[in-house]
Design a protein that fits this description.
Layout (H helix, E strand, L loop, with lengths): L8 H18 L3 E2 L2 E5 L2 H12 L8 H9 L10 H6 L4 H9 L9 H15 L2 H16 L6 H18 L7 H28 L1
Antiparallel strand pairs: 1-2
Helix pairs in contact: 1-3, 2-3, 2-7, 3-5, 3-7, 7-9, 8-9
Length: about 200
């Protein structure tokens, strides 16, 4: 069994409560295109998916916390130094950093490509699991996106991320049972929309 960064579940529970409060109070507003759907709930769903797809004989508390905090820098204006000062471990902060876009880059596609490059270079299984759970939840709610953003997610982001994570040994729930069917479903919906638009 690998050595844990958090020595016991009691410390993790304390940190989890702090992370949940931070996400609720700093990630404000509604999901893009989905009025009435609080933005912060996405972070909870990503954490829950990562947690469910884990072997509980060897809990990776840092990965669970980073999954919860994965958007707190870019959507909540929290710095990595603030996370460290709150007592989150170096491993948790490292994972959050790997899963965070560089917001000083204006072009969103360029930001995403650079984040993918960092993930590929880091070869960090925990960070990839967080990003795949993030993608899974985003795909389930992509109806709120513009048609262009939906197409980019379904035709570019999802296939590339699935390809990049092949062979990393994720629990099958994230890779085969969640992401792939959603990608196929949304791709089919997009194809049908395009066909209807062509007929008009």
């Amino acid at each position: 069994m690998k050595e844990l960064t958090y020595r016991d579940s009691e410390m993790y529970i304390t940190q989890r409560t702090m992370a949940e409060d931070l996400v609720r109070t700093r990630i404000l507003g509604d999901r893009k295109g989905l009025p009435g759907e609080p933005l912060y709930l996405h972070s909870f769903r990503v954490r829950d998916l990562v947690s469910r797809c884990h072997h509980w004989d060897d809990p990776e508390y840092d990965v669970f916390l980073a999954a919860l905090l994965h958007d707190v820098v870019e959507d909540g204006g929290v710095s990595l130094d603030e996370l460290r000062s709150m007592g989150f471990t170096d491993r948790t902060v490292e994972l959050v950093d790997l899963c965070t876009h560089q917001m000083d880059i204006k072009n969103s596609t360029e930001r995403w490509v650079l984040m993918m490059a960092r993930l590929v270079e880091a070869r960090d299984d925990g960070a990839w699991r967080i990003k795949m759970a993030d993608l899974t939840d985003n795909l389930t709610q992509c109806r709120g996106l513009s048609p262009e953003n939906r197409r980019f997610m379904v035709e570019t982001k999802a296939p590339l991320m699935i390809r990049l994570t092949e062979g990393l040994g994720f629990n099958k729930m994230i890779f085969q049972d969640s992401v792939a069917p959603i990608v196929l479903l949304v791709a089919e919906m997009e194809r049908q929309r395009a066909e209807k638009a062509a007929l008009v």
